[in-house]
Structures are given as C-alpha cells and as structure tokens.
Amino acid sequence: MRRLPIALASVVIVAAVAAPTAPAKGKRDVLVVSNNWAGTADLVDPHRFERIKRLNVIPDRAQRVAEIEADATAKFYFDSIRALVGEGHDQYVDDGFVSRDGRVVYFSRPSFADVVAIDIRTNSIRWRTHIDGYRADHMALSPSGRRLLVSASTANVVDVLDTADGEIVGRIPSGDAPHESNFSRDGKRVFHASIGPVYTDTDDPTQDATKGRRVFEIIDARTLQVIKTLDMGQKLAEAGYMNMSSAVRPMALSRNERFVYFQVSFFHGFVEYDLRRDRVTRVAALPLSDEAKGLSRQDYVLDSAHHGLAMNPRGTKLCAAGTMSGYAAIVRRKTLKTQRIVPVGETPYWSASSEDGRDCFVSVAGDDRVSVISFRTAREVARIKVGDHPQRMRTGKVRRRSLR
User: Fold this and answer.
1) N or C: which end of the chain has fewer CB within 10 A?
2) Which residues does the chain have with pLDDT short of 50?
C-alpha cells in the first residue's frame, strides 16, 4: 500500500483533526461489542439493552488464513498469538469504532494483523489495511473521524490510518507492545501507552526488566511528535509505591484533562496522575476476591489484575473491571472511595460509559455477556448475551437505514 512522506502526512493530519465532519441525520445510539474469539461484533441498543444486529468481522477468513499458511513468518506469529495471547484461540477481532457518518465500523483483527472497514448494511469489507508487523491491537478514532490509530504490537509503533481508504499516513514511535491510545477532546493530543510482553511467565517483581520498554507518551496529533515520555513505574516509586509495573493498561481522562486515571499490570486498583505537575497524586487499592487471593501472578490473564476503566461524562465516578476477582467497582472520583463492588462473572475485561452517563457497560469475557451497571445506584440493572469472549466495547451512532 502506498505511503505518504512524513512531512506531507503531518499536513494531512492537521486538516483531518481540525475539520470535523457534520453528523448525518437519522442515526441511533449503539454499543459495539467485539467478540474476540468468535470473529463477530454485536451492535447493542445501549438504552434497551438488546442486540440490534450481529456483524461477521471475518467474512474473508479463508483467504486470510491461506495467505498466512503460505508465509512461514506470518504463520509463526499467527500460531504464537493463538498460543500465547489468545489462550488457545485465534484473536479475530479486538477493537471496533463506528465511523462518524454511521455507515461502517472499523475493526482491528489481531491474528490477521490488519484493520477492516465493515459496511454495516451489507456486512462487506469496504477496505482492508495490513498494519506494520504481525498483530493489530487497540485503536483510537480522532474526534473528526478521519484518523484511526492502531497499535501495531510487534512493530512497536502506532499506525495512523486515513479512514476514507485505510491508507497508512503516519507512524508514532512507541515502546514494546504498544497498547492503549486516547485522543484529547479537541483532537490535538494523543495519550498512549505500551505494555511490554504480557504473555511471559517472568512475572515476579524482580524480573520486571524482562518486560521490555514500557512507556506512557503524550503525542502531538498534528505532527505525530512525542511531546513527553514517562515511566509510570518510576513515577509510582517516586510517590512511595514500590515494585509496581510500568505497564499502563486502560485509562480514563478527567473532563479538564489534567488528570489521567490508569490501571497497571498486576495491580488490583488504579492510579491517579496529575499531568500538569507530573506526579502520582493518589492510588485506589481495590479488594481481591478469595479466589484471586489464591492465585500467583503467573495465573493472571496477560498480567491483568484489573483491565477496564471508564469514567462517567460528568467526571464524578469511575467504573473499574476487576478482571481476576470477577467484579466491577464503582468508585467516587472525589474521594476514591468505593460506592459498591458488583459481582459480574468470569473475567470482566473492559469498561465503557454510556453516552448519557447513566450506565457502565462491562464485558464479561468468560461468560459471553455484557453487564450493565448503573452509575447512580452502583447496581447491576441488566445482562446482555453476546458472542464468544467479548472484550473491547465502544459507543457510537449508526444510520438507521444501515440496520435494515
């Protein structure tokens, strides 16, 4: 696929961030639930808590597998992803964002090392892009809807895609195993983190150096230049929290974007970091279930004690997925006191706030469902059956005609 020179790419990205597209009429709210092992995605009504439509995210599976089988290196990575990351399963779909016009969903497909734009009405692939390296991971969509960030796990970069045709128009340098990315509200900055190799058994704190280079980066979205690089393990140690991992997992930003809240590998809870003062300000330690207390660090799923953190739009509460303890926690941001621990099932692995701020959606990967928890009451109000091994969830607006 043709690449743009970096200088030209920067100019293109300036225009893409600065000029949001006008919203189309006749749309409805959806929650996109990516079913990692099934290779499907469920479009869920976030108000009625029912599935509207199911998309096949791998309609080209036979062709992709044939290509991989013919390439020894690609086959090595394909098999390794299944064995080391997928718990014996191919990772067909990780992340999914609805386009701003509500006609397509962009999906990252880890095992196929690509991103596809799936037409919601026809379930056909509009474009496909093979990303750098051999595994595609988390994504982020710019406020304008014109740029898509995709973590290229094995290439240690974040690829920047033009959503019009999927072309790679830039790259952002990262640490080992780039993971989570978030745009600032105005689209001018990107907050990004790498997590290192989370599939190894070298999980004791004394073996932390084996986890590679893990960084938290603040990036200029226009130029793709890294403005600041932080080692959060070091920052935690400076604040008195010793032997904590540098691997930043899911994160949430305060409304004024002064504070970032994030989970780190092996820790049951989350951290508050002041971006203006460059220091850890508070740490919320959350409880372990009796079962989790009996587990070794090697038993944690991809080093995830907790994996999933969302904030309500008002910025008053956080919703944390307690992955190894089988719960979701609603935490008051002002005090970092827990309002309630809500048991949800086996391996909760992502949290997302509804657009109206009423509910937190928690994907329960081990039970193939989504738990709906009220931010106000901190109680579970619904359970939604979805596909095999749901993980990432994103809210968006879909054209009603596309759902017919």
Assistant:
1) C
2) 1-24
